[in-house]
Amino acid sequence: MTRFNACIDLHNGQVKQIVGGSLTDTDPDSLRTNFVSKESPAYYGQLYKKHNITRAHVIKLGPNNDAAAIEALASWPGGLQVGGGISVENAQEWIDLGANKVIITSYLFPDAKFSLDRLKRLSETVGKEKLVVDVRRKDNKWIVAMNKWQTMTDMEVNKETLDMLSQYCSEFLVHAADVEGLCKGIDQELVRKLGEWVTIPTTYAGGGNNISDLELVDRLSNGKVDLTFGSALDIFGGSSVKFDDCVEWNSKH
């Protein structure tokens, strides 16, 4: 059964909701921000803990976010996942700081080419059960994007690649970068395919704009894919999805 999973997106040390495709290193002025929170990262961590929203992910979007991420993790030790700049050198450190799991994308793609050796090393370092692979879909072929969705890699998202990755991780986080932050609806075909392909817990993020999307994802994926709301959620300045309704959904399902 599909459940609601939460997020804490960090940019320059603040909790924000941004349009995924607008985040670039070359043109900072192109950044489109939907919401900047007045609340601290710890506020959201404590909120998720209160309502037992497990598997919530803290994502560091660029530099100057480590302190904010550490604050979030400290608010619910062992309850939150963390991603952004994770590598074999620092993964265990983030686990020690309180992360339930670490989330990885860019490290697996040196020069935008997938490295199975890096995945194996990371899985061996922290353990398969502590590793989440973030598969960031972009463009019509569902190609994995890295480096804050700016760089296309050589990996296509399909059953074969997900089966291979699942040998070394315990969970997938799938960002549909083309619709991230736009609140114009989920990528239904991708969700349907994920329901056919995945064999481990999987969370989809991108475009959710109505509480009914939980039921839609449940139907499309046969209950195998969970959903994260971002910019549409009232706790992130949105108006179309209430956090309390998401909590209620989880309690009933």
UniProtKB/TrEMBL annotation:
Gene Ontology biological-process entries: L-histidine biosynthetic process; L-tryptophan biosynthetic process
Give one Pfam hit by family name. Answer: His_biosynth
How would you classify this enzyme at the top EC level? isomerase
- Give the signal peptide as a residue range, or say none if absent: none
Q: What is its EC number?
A: 5.3.1.16
**Which protein, by its recorded name, is this?**
1-(5-phosphoribosyl)-5-[(5-phosphoribosylamino)methylideneamino] imidazole-4-carboxamide isomerase
Keywords, in A-Z order? Amino-acid biosynthesis, Cytoplasm, Histidine biosynthesis, Isomerase
* Entry's transmembrane regions: none
- Gene3D superfamilies per the UniProt record, alphabetical: Aldolase class I
Pathway assignment? Amino-acid biosynthesis; L-histidine biosynthesis; L-histidine from 5-phospho-alpha-D-ribose 1-diphosphate: step 4/9
